[in-house]
Structure formats: C-alpha cells, structure tokens
Amino acid sequence: MINDRWVFYQDVKPEETAAGVTRRVLAYSKDLMCVENTFQEGAVGTLHHHPHTQITYVVSGEFEFTIANEKKIVKAGDTMLKTDGVEHGCVCLKAGVLLDIFTPMREDFV
Predict the structure, then answer these.
(1) 3-state secondary structure of 90
(2) Which residue in 87, 13, 27 sits closest to 51, CA to CA?
C-alpha cells in the first residue's frame, strides 16, 4: 500500500500483465514507485508510453529494448532511462527480471 515503510516480497502477489509477464508493485509513495517485472523467454512488453519518467534496471536475463525507435540488447546490470512520453517496449530474449522505478507513481498500477 502507499507509503508502507516495509514491503516484504512474500506478501506481494504477482499480477499477470501479459502472456509470460508478471508484475509486483513493491514500495511506493505518491512521488516514487518500485516495480518488479518477471519475463519468460519470448514474452513481450508491448510498445507504449506514459507521462512518467522511468528507469529500468536489468536484474537478470537478456532483452531487446526499443526506446524512441532505437533498439539495443541489454543484460544484467544495464539500465535505461525513459523520460515521460517516450515510446518504449521490449522482447525477452532470455528469461529474466526487470526492476522499474517511476516518478511520479503509476496510479494505474494500484
């Protein structure tokens, strides 16, 4: 819930957001949100945009990301900045986990 000081992973139920993709909304406030996305190989994060700035950290796996019509392959340890309104999406090449940080929070996720 919003402004929870402690968020324990085992208490957060994953939500299926697309075929082969689950999302866990972790700690968040009105101004900042942390979200984990788990992808199976071949799963797609459809091209989209939103009025939030987003940083994505690749925890594991391998992904082909498109940001503003530019494609790159990213792996564990890589990060991507997506400023508000920029179109972005990905295809999972090797099963993995992405950690997204949004500002402000994504009200549509809760």
Answers:
(1) strand
(2) 87
The helix (run of H) or strand (run of E) holding residue 79 is strand 79-82
CA–CA separation, 102 and 54 (whole Å): 5
Token pair of 105, please? 């929070």
**Does position 5 have pLDDT exceeding 90, yes or no?**
yes
84's tokens: 């508000």
Nearest by Cα to 29 from 53, 11, 8, 3: 3
What's the pTM? 0.96
Tell me: pLDDT of 1 over 90: no
- Sequence ranges of the domains in the chain: 23-109
DSSP code per residue over 12-47: S--EEEETTEEEEEEEE-SS-EEEEEEE-TT-EEEE
Give the class (CATH, top level) of 23-109.
Answer: mainly beta
Residue from 74, 33, 32 nearest 57 by CA: 74
Report the alpha-carbon distance of residue 79 to residue 70 in Å, rounded. Answer: 15
